[in-house]
Amino acid sequence: MPALLVTGGAGYVGSHTVMAMLEQPDFEYEIVVVDNLSNAYRAEGDKKPVALLRIEEMTGKTIQFYEVDIRDKQGLNEVFGKHDVHCVVHFAALKAVGESVEKPLEYCQANITGTCTLFEVMRDHRVYNLIYSSSCTVYGEPERLPLDEEHPTGRGISSPYGRTKYFCEEIMKDLCASDPKWKIISLRYFNPVGAHPSGRIGEDPNGIPNNLMPFIAQVAVGRLPELKVFGTDYPTIDGTGVRDYIHVVDLADGHVKALQLFHRNEFSGFCPINLGTGTGYSVYQVVAAFEAASGRRVAAARAPRRAGDLAANWAAPAAAARLLAWRAARSLRDMCADAWRWQSANPDGYRG
Ligand code: UFG
């Protein structure tokens, strides 16, 4: 049976993508997850992380799991030796913007060295199909909005994390130029939020969340006292930062559609595609939507701007519609309702 290898498949976007793949009635791959568990939880005595066990329970399908770090070439070689890998979906990476400022070398190691090691092993095993987990951060400070794929990348990126995503895209362009067998779809995510509507898988950040939606969810559930609104003097609708929030299930569906693009054989080389809704919402709009969805009050206090934050960004999603026949279908209300269902059913995440 052909295999789809998913690095970082136990993480937030990775687990939702595994779920979306296995929910396809005619899905013809076995799913092989490689994850070092740096941001995923496995209970003592279990063979697999909780997120994957829950997906198996919900879908009735089996996931192959290997606790391997992508910098471990030998470990990766063994996994590729055991399965007939046709395509790789590469999520494994460190992703905390603030932490990346403190630990730039760790971010280079995990995100760049790890990615190059994975590519070496792919080449050695003649696997050339890749879906890469990229970010709108590669666009840096926007020159124009909405952000389309023609917008320049690499200028004015405000964090080492963001630069690792940009550098990996440049490396992938070089790879594609070196050998036409490579086919790489780089999915540039806007702001993934929400959870699977079952409430059984969701975002489970280590420690205090850096991102807006999980922070709000933890305030609503009583784990954190109040939200600090970073900047209320931006030139936006109400002074707070505006982002293109996208439901993680829509995002996961984008990966399912990207996999289908390999089958249709309609592209070659490096293909960047935005995954966003095309609509931006402010921090206060998200807070109001979350209060409405949860019926809880979310205390919010004004705070200074956070270093490196943009005033606003949102996607031009036309390329995804054209190339993948994909469009985000879920509203801000759905994102909040599903994030709340996950958070209220699992107040302590997967450890609960
Ligand atoms: N915000 C707050 N308070 C918080 C957290 C966030 O007010 O406690 C605000 C931010 O200032 C911003 C908005 O909420 O205006 C969204 O912030 P997030 O941290 O959720 O998301 P970012 O847009 O800052 O970061 C996201 C991804 C990063 C990526 C970046 C690129 O999480 O991986 O987009 O633009 F690098």
Provide a brief overview of the structure.
By secondary structure, the chain is α/β, with parallel strands linked by helices. It is built from eleven helices and 13 strands. The protein has one domain (2-351): Rossmann fold.
3D architecture notes:
The protein is globular and about 55 Å long. The protein has eleven helices and 13 strands. The mean pLDDT is 97. 48% of the residues are buried. The longest helix is centred in the N-terminal third of the chain and has 21 residues, at 104-124. 39% of the residues lie in helices and 18% in strands. Strand 5 (129-135), helix 6 (160-178) and strand 6 (183-189) form a beta-alpha-beta unit. The protein has one domain (2-351): Rossmann fold (3-Layer(aba) Sandwich), CATH 3.40.50.720. By secondary structure, it is an alpha/beta fold. Helix 1 packs parallel to helix 2, helix 1 (12-22) crosses helix 8 and helix 3 packs parallel to helix 5 (104-124). The strands form four sheets. A seven-stranded parallel beta sheet has the order 3-2-1-4-5-6-11, with helices on both faces. It has a two-stranded parallel ribbon with strand order 7-10. A two-stranded parallel sheet has the order 8-13. The chain has helices at 12-22, 50-59, 73-82, 97-102, 104-124, 160-178, 212-220, 248-264, 283-294, 318-324, 332-345, and strands spanning 2-7, 30-35, 63-67, 84-90, 129-135, 183-189, 191-193, 227-230, 242-243, 245-247, 269-275, 281-282, 300-303. Uridine-5'-diphosphate-4-deoxy-4-fluoro-alpha-D-galactose is lined by residues 95, 97, 135-137, 161-162, 191, 210-212, 215, 227-231, 241, 243, 283, 306, 309.
